[in-house]
Amino acid sequence: MSARFRVGLVPDLLDAAGKPTFGAEPLAVLDGAPEIERVWLPERYTEIPAALALEYDALYLTQARVTRASVARATEGRLKVVARHGVGYDSVDVAAMTEAGVIVTNTPFAIRRPVATIAMTFILALAGHLFTKDRLTRSGRWHERTSYMGTGLTGRRLGIVGGGGIGKELIPLARAFALRVGVADPYVPAADIEKLGATLVPLDTLLAESDFVVIACLLNDETRALIGAERLARMKPSAYLINVARGPIVHEPALIEALRARRIAGAALDVFTNEPVENDNLLLTLDNVIVTPHALCWTDECFGNIAREGFGGLASLARGVAPANVVNREVLSHPRVNAWLRGNARTA
């Protein structure tokens, strides 16, 4: 068994040519640390098997689920860290990780600007009927363009559901287009939102008043199906819903019905309840919906910054230092975690 801190990376992060999707440069963060050994995992996993806990100190993951069963052998094995390449960690049973003494990390800082940017991209595309006008041009319906007048943004209202890093990043982008911004988040101080030029408002008020609603909160037990039929009914018939967070935050059947009945003007979705989205999902048949495969923010810049942040956290942990991007901070007091952090800590 290797004495080095062994990091297993999922092959989901390799492109068709077998090269890292985030570029080669971020790997220097791991390769430059003599205490770290990095390995590409031999296969793609839907759910991480318990056997991997015996072989690796850290797993660097994208979509694979990490369940209680995944860490059933953690105490007899090596697994100390589950690192998410991205900000969301709803695919990880965080409570089970904490009980097993396994640290969970994510990349909350690198993802903020890219996801805020795609939210703004969706707003602009919906406001200008971008894809409708693309279809008109391609199908020889040029003279129908007067039937699709866009929505000017000056003075319109943008409602952001979630005032975390992404929501805060979106505020100045939106204000550059003279949008008035409201934020619904029961856990963020009003002063934090107001200093960015936005207003903290109750969710139901935000839905009723906004011309564009962007979902930018984490998925958890509290936010699952947060936007259902009742809340969709509060939106204006002229309003648009944009989801750049997680699909299950919006009750998909209710959204489909609202879109089919034109109770809201349209939607733009980078996420779905089930991913990959099923071919027979009715959302794919609607002409007032823009859909992208949970990848609109994927750029060389985005993935490179995510990898640097994620690998940087692993490099710190390999040296016995807990980084800022630990999700389950309470696990740091777990006896198992305390023991290996102290054992790996470098003296000044």
Notable characteristics:
11 helices; Rossmann fold; elongated; five-stranded parallel β-sheet; 348 residues; single chain
Model description:
- With 348 residues, the protein is an alpha/beta fold.
- The chain folds into 2 domains: 5-110 and 299-344, 3-Layer(aba) Sandwich (Rossmann fold); 112-291, NAD(P)-binding Rossmann-like Domain (Rossmann fold), CATH 3.40.50.720.
- Helices cover 29% and strands 14% of the residues.
- The strands form 2 sheets. Strands 8-7-6-9-10-11-12 form a 7-stranded parallel β-sheet, with helices on both faces. A 5-stranded parallel β-sheet has the order 2-1-3-4-5, with helices on both faces.
- Helix 3 packs across helix 5.
- The longest helix is centred in the C-terminal third of the chain and has 19 residues, at 300-318.
- The chain is elongated and about 70 Å long.
- It starts with a strand and ends with a helix.
- The model has no long low-confidence stretch (mean pLDDT 95).
Morphology: elongated
CATH class of the largest domain: Alpha Beta
| The number of domains | 2
**CATH architecture field of the largest domain:** 3-Layer(aba) Sandwich
Please state the average pLDDT score: 95
Give the name of the CATH superfamily of the largest domain.
NAD(P)-binding Rossmann-like Domain
What is the beta-strand fraction? Answer: 5-15%
